[in-house]
Amino acid sequence: MKGYFGIGVEGVSKAMNVGTLFRTAHAFGASFVFTINAQYRRRDGGHADTSDTPGAVPTYHFASVEEFCLPQGCRLVGIEITDDAIELPSFRHPRQVAYVLGAEREGLSRSAQSLCDFVVRIPTRFSVNLGVAAAIIMYDRLISLGRFADRPVAAGGPEAPLPPPVFGEPVWKRRQRRKMRAAGESGL
């Protein structure tokens, strides 16, 4: 899968929720994780983050939304239940993206939402746990951008595995070979 993703939280006060999110992000291959204005202590979050994500994945802590920054070209996607949010099954994930989820009770602040390129909602009847929401987002990214065989019409798995991708030689090598052949044909 091309591209990268990061995921983080804003205003969270429960270290176990952040730890769960970080561990899940690590499992799904996040390139970085972050907190914004969160009351997070690595030691407390480590009870849920048994993979020690901050020890393996770049981890950023921002004191406020105003201090928050992302790599150049990285899109920000907020996960929040709002009337104008895009429903997750209809959303195309950007290749270079950071996802941000809000606090347990208050959700994603207006100032954080204003930074977002997109706001996405998970189509549930009510809000789910922060770690669960993050896992759903990362899983949806994986299945929509990953290279998997199509689901069969009947119950069960696919009949045959997806063939491995075939890539040509690098363009510069093909040009070099053409030049060599042209030079050989012209008697040089």
UniProtKB/TrEMBL annotation:
Gene Ontology biological-process annotations: methylation; RNA processing
Keyword terms of this UniProt record: Methyltransferase, Transferase
MF terms (GO), sorted A to Z: RNA binding; RNA methyltransferase activity
Residue ranges constituting the tRNA/rRNA methyltransferase SpoU type domain according to the UniProt record: 8-139
InterPro entries xref list: Alpha/beta_knot_MTases (IPR029028), rRNA_Methyltransferase (IPR051259), SpoU_MeTrfase (IPR001537), tRNA_m1G_MTases_N (IPR029026)
Protein name: RNA methyltransferase
Species this protein is from: Vineibacter terrae
Lineage: Bacteria, Pseudomonadati, Pseudomonadota, Alphaproteobacteria, Hyphomicrobiales
